[in-house]
Amino acid sequence: MSLPYLRLRQICLVAADLSEASRMIEGVLRVPVCYQDPGVGKYGLHNALFAMGGTFLEVVSPLPGVKDTAAERYLSRRGGDGGYMFIVDCDNLEARRTHFEAKGLRMVEDLKAGDEVVGSEAIHLHPRDTGGCLLSIDRHTGGADMMGGYFWAGTHWKLKAAAPSERMLLGADMQSADPEGLARRWGDILERPINRMSDGVWEIALDHGFARFTPLLDGRGEGLSCVHLGCADPEVLLGAARAAGLFIHGDGFDLAGVRFKLVRLAVAA
Description:
Strand content: 35-45%
Oligomer: single chain
Helix content: 10-25%
Order of helices and strands: EHEEHEHEEHEEHEEEEHEEE
CATH topology of the largest domain: 2,3-Dihydroxybiphenyl 1,2-Dioxygenase, domain 1
CATH architecture of the largest domain: Roll
């Protein structure tokens, strides 16, 4: 029997121009689009998904001509492209739903497996209750196998997935005027302890990945501000980012409104 788990599976960005954001991700991160989900059209969105090992990076944009979508409001509130959603998966969604109800957390979406959704379930919590960004807690048919079934990525995503040794999402930062308070709120929601990393920086460790909470770094307000990307070849990605004219940091670059911090993946013995 596998142990219970709670893991980072997907980070979603929002961009005004889906084609441009997708082109930059493909060119700089060196991963192809693995799927575009027609199901997000009901939210007034279109998207592109990128598979990195058993984790996923998504970009969503408002559909042309569709007004007053949550994504459009987010773009307006934060002054442009940026982080939008942090998605974890677990094996005990019923217990977590009960916990959310007991805490009085609003569930803006409670997707159960059925005719339209096959083998995956998700609970989206109201961002005013979570803070930070939109938080989703999922369960998938792949179970403990991160390379197993993942409905949101279609049925053939593994054919275009970067290997876990080449690319893997490791975590994300949420900037806040009160990082400790936000970390404690997420810790209570996810039933995980928080750890002080340094002055003003707190972290929740997951069975894969982490959520980190930092002070405000810019004038854009609270939100998902940084993606930690594990990669086998950070020098190649930095070179591609320079060639694309992106703003470079010592260990990463800015892309689609967030900072990508590159972490070299360990080479298996």
